[in-house]
Design goal:
Length: 324
């Protein structure tokens, strides 16, 4: 990664002049400023504000970046993480992920101690650059990146086993066709959950719909395909929030759950237990993930080598899929 020294050499100015230009703290001639900016653009240099704050031990803040801030799964996770962070003397800055690399870069430009994120919608280059500066990074892995910085620690969910368990459960209850509502943008950027669904339903009748991450989109998609729905169909949703919208749409279309069709969610959020019928879902330990993330980040801050953490999810069977 380019340094301030590299910028100065390419621009043929002193490092002090580069600092003056970047921080707007001293005089730099127009000609020198133009050369410095050209060197910055050529080298892809970014001011190393984060690393400097770490050296000075001024920052006691972790950033949590989440795919969908409205998803109750993330609120549960952040609640527990916040309690754990407070115990250790840290605070959490919480933001949703937006499809804007400049916004993400701006967040990373603040004085922070570490980053936890779900990588479904993140830019791989930005995260790798951050880790290369020595900033502790923990990722809840949704997508398998090919060129992951070795300094990044992963929290991984065994989606392969749980998707097979879901399909077996649905088959035992007489459901034969499977609709999967994925939060991924498209097939080329499908997350691990979507890919493992496709593996689990190989040779079976299934359809995947993309860009569905909230109740409204779940509701609208069911209405859009209402002519395709048949008795014994099953809807598997990327999260519980989508499952709520799907169930509401099925009620609107006068399908009975689970007598006619099944609905399965993901994340085991608190509301999934109290809807009528209760939503069958997958528990991936939302509360525990928050605490684990803080523990991993603080250990990395202390220079302790930490291994990836593997989560074995559990199927929570409720009335939305259980005909037995």
């Amino acid at each position: 990664m380019a340094s301030r020294k590299d910028v100065a050499a390419l621009a043929k100015v002193s490092q002090a002049s580069v600092s003056y230009y970047i921080n707007k703290s001293g005089y730099v001639s127009a000609e020198a400023a133009e050369r410095i900016q050209k060197a910055i653009d050529t080298l892809g240099y970014r001011p190393n504000q984060i690393a400097r704050s770490l050296r000075c031990n001024k920052s006691k803040r972790f950033v949590f970046l989440c795919n969908e801030i409205r998803n109750p799964f993330f609120s549960q996770m952040v609640h527990q993480a916040t309690q754990e962070a407070i115990k250790k003397g840290y605070v959490i800055l919480f933001s949703t992920v937006v499809d804007d690399s400049a916004y993400i870069e701006k967040i990373f430009g603040y004085q922070i101690s570490g980053v936890f994120a779900s990588n479904n919608r993140l830019d791989e280059k930005s995260i790798n650059n951050l880790a290369s500066q020595g900033v502790p990074v923990v990722i809840l892995r949704d997508i398998e990146w090919k060129q992951l910085n070795p300094n990044i620690t992963l929290i991984k969910v065994n989606y392969q086993r749980i998707l097979k368990t879901i399909i077996n459960h649905l088959e035992e209850n007489g459901f034969r066709r499977y609709f999967y509502f994925s939060s991924s943008r498209n097939p080329s950027s499908a997350d691990e959950k979507t890919l493992k669904f496709l593996e689990a339903t190989e040779g079976k009748t299934q359809t995947v719909f993309y860009q569905i991450s909230d109740p409204q989109r779940g509701f609208e998609q069911v209405i859009n395909i209402k002519k395709e729905i048949r008795v014994d169909d099953a809807f598997i949703c990327a999260n519980d929030a989508v499952a709520f919208g799907v169930r509401k749409a099925l009620d609107t279309l006068e399908y009975f759950v689970p007598n006619d069709v099944a609905v399965v969610g993901f994340d085991n959020t608190i509301n999934s237990k109290y809807t009528i019928p209760g939503i069958t879902t997958v528990d991936i330990e939302a509360d525990k993930i928050g605490a684990i993330a803080i523990s991993l980040l603080t250990k990395k801050m202390q220079g302790v080598k930490v291994d990836d953490y593997i989560i074995e999810p559990k199927l929570i069977i409720r009335n939305s899929s259980n005909r037995v």
